[in-house]
Design goal:
Layout (H helix, E strand, L loop, with lengths): L2 H15 L7 H19 L4 H14 L17 H11 L3 H11 L4 H5 L4 H6 L2 H12 L4 H8 L6 H11 L4 H13 L1 H12 L2 H4 L11 H18 L4 H16 L3 H8 L1 H16 L3 H4 L4 H30 L18 H11 L8 H26 L1
């Protein structure tokens, strides 16, 4: 073999087979974003279970020529594309996440104080404000609906709705939802302090009534029936949530309950996070500019969802004898149990003996139902 032939072969290998020659500023920018998410998880301990797989997914998929999200020569999906195709596009992973969430959820606080369901509804305010706002930026009705749901801070529901209406926005929408979900402890307290008075923050609520085991067993069955009859579009999410909770409360399938809420949920979380992160390829993210709008308006969405829950609690206080501490209104977003913990922690700053965690769990669980209801309404209207 002559030197010119050897040079041509080596040149071809470098140009066509090595990723370093294809690395551009877009890929570097997205890898930096992935690195930032992982830094938040590792250095700041901000929701590592979410941000580690998402951040690593963003990081790895932006290396050029890596066989991750494309198709093989035989037409089969590559490594991460397998989880994306069968987990997200086939809408398998979000319902399984809800199954695990149901096994970890005690609906007792919501059953004991059902009026906080109104807070879960009020906390969807940002969803509809963002829906209108995105239309002004040239989004289609389906894209606007998929983007609006971000403010509910419910990752699986955002993934489910976006995949149904605007799958090309799945990456930015899911990353935005999970990011704001993870940043609840940072984003919510300033809003809570701005919208409440010192007197309101010190309100002590009466102790919740005891909830019987019979009520806890009947609740998932009745709730599942109502949701499936009124909002059938979200039956996969709602039914799995209630199945998980029924398994928990029945007490007869502890092994199944432990698996769904433990090992299974952990495995699904890994692949969901990787799949979501892997959709954030530079060429997609910087294509038409819409992902940047999504991430920007997502903050506005989250702010108004938080405010909507607080305002709803304040409105309830005007007509109720038993006052609510408006700080629990911020828990009306779906980030369970993070938003409830933030309400509780913020309340302790103004009254160290005012323990509100159980009171805040009611609106928090109502927010899960409210966000699912909003998603079902959008699917019914636009799919």
């Amino acid at each position: 073999m002559s030197w010119p032939e050897l040079y041509e072969i080596l040149h071809k290998i470098v140009v066509t087979q090595m990723g370093i020659t294809h690395l551009g500023p877009g890929e570097i920018a997205m890898m930096t974003v992935g690195g930032f998410f992982m830094w938040l998880a590792v250095a700041k301990n901000i929701e590592p279970l979410l941000l580690v797989p998402i951040g690593f997914g963003i990081f790895i998929v932006n290396f050029p020529l890596t066989p991750m999200m494309g198709t093989t020569e035989s037409g089969h999906p590559e490594f991460l594309a397998v989880f994306y195709e069968f987990g997200l596009k086939w809408e398998m992973l979000p319902p399984v996440i809800f199954l695990g969430l149901g096994t970890l959820t005690d609906f007792g606080p919501l059953i004991a104080n059902p009026k906080v369901l109104a807070i879960g509804a009020g906390a969807q305010l940002g969803v509809f404000i963002t829906f209108v706002g995105t239309l002004l930026f040239g989004f289609t009705l389906k894209e606007a609906a998929a983007t609006g749901i971000i403010g509910g801070a419910d990752g699986p529901t955002t993934v489910y709705l976006t995949n149904a209406l605007a799958p090309h926005l799945l990456g930015p929408n899911a990353v935005a939802a999970y990011s704001y979900m993870a940043l609840v402890p940072i984003l919510q307290p300033p809003i809570m302090r701005l919208l409440t008075t010192d007197e309101e923050r010190k309100i002590r609520m009466k102790q919740l009534r005891p909830v019987s085991q019979k009520e806890k067993i009947l609740f998932p069955l009745i709730s599942c029936a109502i949701i499936c009859l009124l909002i059938p579009a979200v039956a996969p999410l709602a039914s799995m949530l209630m199945l998980g909770n029924f398994m928990r409360e029945s007490g007869v399938v502890k092994r199944l309950s432990d698996t769904a809420g433990g090992a299974l949920m952990n495995v699904v979380t890994i692949f969901l996070g990787l799949s979501v992160g892997a959709t954030m390829q530079a060429e997609t993210f910087f294509g038409d500019g819409k992902p940047l709008v999504v991430l920007t308006l997502g903050v506005v969405d989250f702010v108004f969802c938080t405010a909507g829950g607080i305002w709803t609690a304040q409105i309830i206080n005007k007509f109720s004898k038993d006052k609510l501490n408006p700080l629990i209104g911020s828990a009306g977003v779906s980030a369970v149990p993070m938003a409830a913990r933030v309400s509780h922690t913020e309340g302790l700053k103004y009254d160290p003996d005012n323990h509100m965690i159980m009171h805040a769990m009611g609106p928090n669980l109502a927010g899960v139902i409210g966000t699912a209801a909003a998603a079902g309404m959008f699917i019914a209207m636009f799919k």
